[in-house]
Specification:
alpha+beta, six-stranded antiparallel sheet, 3 helices, 39% strand, elongated
């Protein structure tokens, strides 16, 4: 497997990841956007709207898991070459508090990058309303991502 050039600038990395995000149609549908891109670490935000709520007015659990999956996956993508892809093999999400507020912020990072699998973690925080300034941690996730090599 070829590797990501050590000389890849922050601007090049951001551009490469943003190009890949354009093909993430579901992320556009829910209104998520990447707000921080670093090697092995990604952050995404989403303005919470009524369409994101379950029947009690909390952020839907599927939305929270999706945000965790998004940031864990793209954190892994930052560590592979542009012609490689990444898919989720396993995602475990633990819900700690209801998502009540104005904005979700998810942060994902790579614990171990391997040749075929990347092991990642993610946190999802809710901001606004009664939440503290640093946001309320509403979910933690672990994810295993598989590297997809280009076909010859």
């Amino acid at each position: 497997m070829s590797s990501v050039p050590a000389s890849e600038s922050a601007a090049d990395l951001t551009g490469r990841i943003r190009r890949k995000l354009q093909r993430q149609h579901f992320m556009h549908l829910i209104g998520a956007d990447l707000t921080r891109i670093e090697p092995g670490r990604v952050q995404a935000e989403l303005a919470l709207e009524q369409r994101h709520q379950q029947q009690r007015g909390f952020a839907h659990g599927g939305l929270v898991a999706t945000m965790a999956d998004l940031v864990a996956g793209f954190a892994a993508v930052t560590l592979v070459p542009d012609d490689h892809g990444m898919v989720t093999v396993e995602l475990k999400t633990s819900y700690l508090h209801p998502g009540i507020g104005e904005r979700l912020v998810a942060t994902g990072w790579v614990l171990k990058a391997g040749r075929r699998l990347h092991f990642c973690e993610a946190e999802v925080r809710c901001f606004g309303g009664q939440n503290p300034a640093e946001g309320l941690l509403i979910a933690k996730a672990t994810a295993t991502m598989a590297v997809i090599e280009p076909t010859p």
